[in-house]
Amino acid sequence: METVEQVRQAGVFSTVRRSVRMTVGQQRVWETNWAQLGRKLEDIPAGLVDLADWFGRDAPTVLEIGSGMGEGTSQLARQAPEVNHIAAEVYPAGLGQLMLWVEKYELDNVRLLHGDALEFLTDHLPAESLAGVRVFFPDPWPKKRHHKRRLITPPFVKLLASRLQPGGRLHLATDWQDYADDMLAICEAEPLLTNEYDGWAPRPDWRPITKFESRAHDEGRRCHDLMFMKSAT
User: Rounded to 5 degrees, what are φ and ψ at 30?
Assistant: First the structure.
């Protein structure tokens, strides 16, 4: 099995750490709900995580990498109560806000990971354990000299494909054309994945419109979705 260092390019993390103070409400829900809903990467014991034990049920599990402020995640969890949703984020205020949404909508199918999703995937998730992986609007690092910092790379996509169950879906979205082109080429080159469409996927109505997508439309950038399925073995 590849190590984190073999998958990660220099300086690349699944999301960029930010130090932002939580609101009073976010702090409250963190103190009351985190022990039940969340795990910090550094606190997870060595070895594989028992997803059925974490959720209290055995159900298809989807990992979202970079859940931001969590509103989109909460809407997706409301739409699919039969699915377990893991939201991976390094931004504590974002996780706190997601827990507020979980509390508001009384969701019991959401769990939160505070830390780098790459390490979680590599060290704590078994092969073929996920029904889906979502990476919506990852940091585009638009300057050419920073492209090497982008998350979606051939080794990372290979890792994601290995964690998907046969028939599982990798769903990517970005509003940067050159990043979308790179994502398409990288995913089409991964032998374990098959494009569900001829090129770009139509934007699904069920994917909530985030502030990033709204801003992209305002700034004249087209958003692209990609949906690849893990081939049956």
Answer: -65, -45
Partners of 135 in beta bridges = 172
13-47: per-residue pLDDT in tens?
555 445 568 999 999 999 999 999 999 999 999 99
Q: Degrees (nearest 5) of the Cα angle 209, 32, 15? A: 40
List 53, 58, 139, 205, catalytic entry: 139
Residue type, 41: L
**Active-site residue, 139 included:** yes
Chain-centroid distance, C-alpha 83? 15
Tracing tokens 């209290």 back to the chain, one arrives at 56
Check whether 175 is labelled as a binding-site residue: yes
Nearest Cα neighbor of 162 from 121, 123, 196, 195 is: 121
Task: Return the structure tokens found at 19.
Answer: 């130090």
Tokens of 183: 């994502």
